[in-house]
Amino acid sequence: MGLTDQYRYVADITDLDGKPIDQLPVQPDWDAAVQWAHFRAVRRGQVPPLMRAPSATMKPIWQHDHGEPHVSGFHVILQEPCASQAEEPAPDNGALSFTIPRTYLGAEVERCASRLVSEGKLLDGQRFLYQLSAFQKHEAAPGEADPQTPRFHVEDVTQPLPLGTASLAAHIDHAAKQESPIDPAVDASASGADMPVFIPERVINEAKALARDAGDIETGGVLIGRLFRDSESTEVFSAITAFIPARHTVADRSRLTFTADTWAAVRAAVDLRGKDEMLLGWIHSHPFWCRSCPQERRQVCPLMRPFFSRDDIALHRTVFPGAFNIAVLLSDFGEPDLRCDVFGWRFGMVMSRDFYLVGPAVTEPAHPVPGSRPALPGGEAELACTGGAIGTKPDSERCSTDTSGRKTRSSCESEVS
User: Fold this and answer.
1) Residue pair 124/405 in contact by the 8 Å Cβ criterion
2) Which pLDDT tens digit goes with each residue over 272-288?
3) In angstroms, how far is CA 202 from the centroid of its own chain?
4) Quick check: helix, strand or coil at residue 198?
């Protein structure tokens, strides 16, 4: 993918009283944001259905009150040919712009700030504020080598997105929507942000049975299925067809590792089915960690809610980077049934999301998730923004986070090719 970003980014770190602590360079990885924007354009029929965006440009959005260099968000500008089935022509000679919230860089800021703990500038677990700024990169003079320009150019061979054709309305008629709340900080722009996903009840039940058999050990597997273009609109949706239990894993109470043998077994199972299915996501379980805790502690314990840890997000980002990929989490909270939550890509970040449950015995909706940012033990959220919808000025132009260690969850040894 050809990516253009003419800016460098800096985070000014302060304590909660506004006292300066340090200034940190931040190096964004824009791939997830660009691929989400590209897939959103595919769903609107604005660009050809390709697996990845051929090219994009990133530009900061300046804060309304303070202006440059203070950042309130980012524009992903896609430079792609307009698709023939587009609902409306793309502006600016094929350029399509999508807004990504400032919180996209929250995890990277926290990672960069972790070194301040080792330097003694922050205490382990100390919360802090940061202000994100962007500056034009150095432009090389004539004859001067530009350090920002790579010496080699790699051109991606972008594969077409395999899309069948089916009726979205017909799928909805045979399913029950399981709703998950949208983060108040982004819900003004999140309407329709998530691709419809259909999961058979039998798939969830198979995964739950596997998790119960595993007891206090994490377990999981891979979700396969197909992508479809709605026969009556440009919308794209996914239909899960099967759950492949993950074999040859390395697992304990707080970690699940998919090995090379795991992926070999998954590929063999998909080939054996011979139904032109693709990998659409994965499932893993969280055992009942608070089994021996008194009831009063369970009520305030951050482990007593569904969450995606940093390692969970790292696995999802590495192995399931497609904007259409999802992750199902089965959580044991000591109730008769395991809780089922679905996570997916929104604005390039992994967040809880809605889904459709397909099956004859669907009567109760899924439990709501308290907030859709990746909830992590040890803090209220990975990044707690003070408020405001995308494209509007929040009540405060700062965000707060912390450096506390969190219980790690999952990791992977090899990628899906």
Assistant:
1) yes
2) 999 999 999 999 999 98
3) 25
4) strand
Strand partners, 226: 239
Q: Which of 70-74, 81-85, 303-307 has the highest mean pLDDT?
A: 70-74
Phi, psi of 387 (to 5 degrees): 135, 180
Q: Where are the alpha helices (DSSP H) in 23-72?
A: 31-43
Compute the distance between CA of residue 334 and CA of residue 289 in angstroms, rounded to an integer: 9
214-252 burial, b at 16+ Cβ within 10 Å, e below that, comes to eeebbbbbbbbbbbbbbeeebbbbbbbbbbbbbeebebe
SS3 of 332-379: the string is CCCCCCCEEEEEEEECCEEEEECEEEECCCCCCCCCCCCCCCCCCCCC
| Longest Cα separation, the chain | 71
Structure confidence at residue 297 (pLDDT): 82
Residue with tokens 């500056």: 135
pLDDT at 379 > cutoff 50: no
Which range (145-154, 320-329, 352-361) has the least confidence? 145-154
First-last CA distance in the chain: 17
Task: Report the relative pairing of strands 278-286 and 255-258 from DSSP bridges.
Answer: unpaired
- CA 329 to CA 349: how far, in whole Å? 16
Reported as a single tens digit per residue, the pLDDT across 382-408 is 232 222 222 222 233 333 333 443 433
DSSP 160: B
Those residues whose C-beta lies under 8 Å from the C-beta of residue 198, and which sit 6 or more positions away, are: 171, 175, 237, 238, 239, 240, 355, 356, 358
CA angle 30, 31, 32 (to 5 degrees): 100
* Cα–Cα dist 198/227, whole Å: 10
Tell me how far the alpha carbon of residue 331 is from its chain's centroid.
19
User: Would you say residue 1 has pLDDT above 60?
Assistant: yes
Cα 235 to Cα 196: distance, rounded to the nearest angstrom:
9
